[in-house]
């Protein structure tokens, strides 16, 4: 899920540039105003897949093998109607190609989809000329790979240096690298940016990080973009800056540049941003016998970074996202714990094999929920314990008045899995539709790799303003009472009706929402098989689906004249598995019917 992400920046100069962090699964990923993840890596030409018939006659192989770049923007052919208010820039970032022909004539390849070479895609949606009554919306597309330096190193050496998400290593190499790692210094952001494979999500104009780009008010096509900087992120403390127009990597930055105490190696690819203030929230994890999560805030107004809580009462875990409400940041430490206090990361040289197995019956793997005050320097104000699970993507969180005065209940939506099978699903041998292993994998583990949409409640959290300024240090460690009060599971949607790469109307971030949109995974293909609109009030679902069509994470663009929560359109990049080409799909978010699409013209 993590490797695909998209973001959308409105062309409406009066619309605030809000960075909404979401993440998901797909064949590409990126982020600019809204996050998108999904199973398509840009616009790719058809190639026949020899050999085995695709699983369920639902082909998707070409979406995992993207090697073509379109560095110069090209205009796409528009079919149907794309409303003018959808004008803006949509970015997608995620894995592209995964094979390298070495100098020795051998083929080197990545094992896991999350380790594919990052490629960024850009769709510029231009509103019709208001002086021409016959004019229609125009869309331009360009893309660029961001790892040319890394690919060249693999071509010369025949191997991958450094750490990865799931790349399988030779046991001897892992052993000696474990020894050598002891003598390595701190990671550096002085390396050439095209040597780092950073590309799970994208952020537009994030506070705190100075841009290395020469800022221009005009984009590549001469329109005012409002995009000052664009950054690729992953589940580490390193970010990569890319040029918003050319998509060229131009710099690296580590989180300790924001604050000297942010020395950990891990963070959430999906940070959270306040849509009103622009403040950005994330955590930094330093592994060890006593793991430390430092939750921090970057001011949207000043760029200053403050650590608002330090948590030592939970094991180090792989956490891809977190939650934000009006008054709180919520960090849920679910069951994806690193084995041996994180030392196994050094041994395996990848994240996947360093995560311990998750047995839902193990009481040590129960989820821990930490509620952190955003405004009054109170640190962790409440902690809860819940059932064990794993999660990639949170949806949204908001507050409801509690039965007790001065307190609120926190409502949280997310997609959960009962164990860690889902991350093993994304080995290429398990996810490509023509792979013999995919049939065996889905026959054995298919159901456990599909998530359930959940709603949880954290009851009676104190929201009152302190009577006097807090004297507690934000760097103090948190000690929590045992046993912790229980987090309450309100409801769970069936797997066939649940979503991944979830998104909502961005106007409802940190507010009570009704509708959740995302990719559907009903087992019809080895990847995803439709787009869902889930109604949290009626607990019903509307679906866009066509056989062989592999959609990416949807992005919601609100209708500025709309009155209802679902007034707007969804943007999703879809791979047509039958033709091997991708297109930008535009759906009416109210009825999930197609309004228009943009396709590559010509052969």
TrEMBL record:
Gene Ontology terms describing biological process: carotene catabolic process
GO molecular function: carotenoid dioxygenase activity; metal ion binding
Cofactor: Fe(2+)
Keywords tagged on the record: Iron, Metal-binding, Oxidoreductase
Positions of Fe cation binding: 270, 320, 393
Region (Disordered) residue spans: 459-483
UniProt key word Cytoplasm: no
Biased composition (Polar residues): 467-481
Cofactor comment text: Binds 1 Fe(2+) ion per subunit.
Matching PANTHER family: BETA-CAROTENE DIOXYGENASE, CAROTENOID ISOMEROOXYGENASE
Entry similarity comment: Belongs to the carotenoid oxygenase family.
Protein name (Swiss-Prot/TrEMBL): Carotenoid oxygenase
Source species: Glutinoglossum americanum
């Amino acid at each position: 899920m993590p490797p695909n992400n998209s973001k959308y920046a409105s062309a409406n100069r009066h619309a605030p540039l809000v960075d909404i962090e979401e993440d998901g699964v797909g064949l590409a990923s990126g982020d600019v105003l809204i996050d998108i993840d999904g199973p398509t890596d840009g616009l790719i030409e058809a190639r026949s897949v020899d050999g085995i018939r695709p699983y369920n006659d639902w082909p998707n192989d070409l979406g995992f093998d993207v090697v073509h770049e379109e560095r110069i923007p090209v205009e796409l052919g528009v079919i149907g109607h794309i409303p003018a208010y959808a004008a803006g820039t949509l970015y997608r970032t995620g894995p592209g190609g995964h094979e390298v022909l070495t100098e020795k004539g051998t083929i080197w390849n990545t094992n896991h989809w999350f380790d594919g070479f990052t490629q960024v895609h850009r769709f510029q949606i231009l509103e019709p000329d208001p002086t021409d009554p016959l004019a229609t919306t125009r869309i331009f597309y360009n893309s660029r790979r961001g790892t040319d330096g890394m690919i060249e190193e693999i071509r010369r050496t025949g191997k991958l240096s450094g750490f990865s998400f799931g790349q399988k290593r030779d046991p001897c190499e892992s052993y000696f690298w474990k020894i050598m790692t002891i003598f390595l210094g701190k990671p550096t952001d002085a390396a050439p940016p095209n040597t780092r494979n950073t590309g799970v999500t994208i952020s537009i104009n994030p506070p705190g990080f100075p841009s290395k780009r020469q800022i221009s008010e005009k984009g590549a096509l001469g329109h005012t973009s409002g995009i000052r900087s664009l950054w690729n992120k992953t589940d580490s403390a390193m970010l990569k800056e890319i040029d918003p127009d050319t998509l060229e990597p131009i710099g690296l930055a580590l989180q300790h540049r924001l604050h000297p105490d942010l020395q950990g190696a891990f963070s959430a690819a999906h940070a959270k941003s306040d849509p009103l203030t622009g403040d950005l929230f994330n955590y930094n994890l330093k592994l060890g016998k006593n793991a430390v999560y430092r939750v921090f805030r970057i001011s949207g107004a000043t760029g200053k970074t403050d650590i608002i809580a330090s948590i030592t009462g939970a094991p180090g875990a792989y956490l891809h996202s977190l939650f934000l409400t009006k008054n709180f940041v919520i960090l849920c430490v679910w069951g994806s714990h690193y084995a041996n206090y994180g030392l196994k990361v050094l041994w395996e040289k990848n994240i996947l094999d360093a995560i311990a197995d998750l047995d839902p019956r193990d009481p040590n793997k129960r989820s821990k929920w930490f509620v952190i005050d955003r405004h009054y320097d109170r640190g962790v104000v409440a902690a809860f314990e819940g059932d064990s699970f794993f999660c990639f993507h949170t949806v949204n969180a908001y507050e409801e008045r509690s039965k007790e005065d001065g307190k609120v209940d926190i409502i949280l939506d997310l997609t959960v899995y009962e164990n860690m099978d889902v991350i093993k699903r994304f080995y290429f041998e398990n996810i490509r539709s023509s792979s013999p292993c995919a049939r065996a994998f889905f026959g054995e583990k298919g159901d456990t790799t599909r998530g359930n949409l959940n709603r949880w409640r954290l009851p009676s959290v104190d929201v009152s303003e302190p009577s006097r300024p807090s004297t507690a240090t934000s760097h103090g460690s948190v000690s929590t009472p045992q046993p912790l009060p229980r987090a309450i599971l309100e409801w769970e949607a069936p797997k066939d009706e649940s979503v991944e790469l979830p998104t909502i109307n961005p106007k409802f971030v940190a507010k009570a929402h009704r509708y959740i949109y995302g990719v559907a995974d009903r087992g019809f293909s080895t990847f995803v098989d439709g787009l869902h609109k889930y109604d949290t009030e009626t607990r019903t679902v509307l679906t866009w689906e066509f056989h062989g069509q592999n959609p990416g994470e949807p992005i919601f663009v609100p209708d500025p004249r709309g009155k209802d929560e679902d007034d707007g359109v969804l943007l999703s990049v879809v791979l047509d598995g039958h033709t091997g080409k991708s297109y930008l799909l535009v759906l009416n978010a109210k009825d999930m019917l197609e309004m228009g699409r943009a396709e590559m013209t010509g052969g």
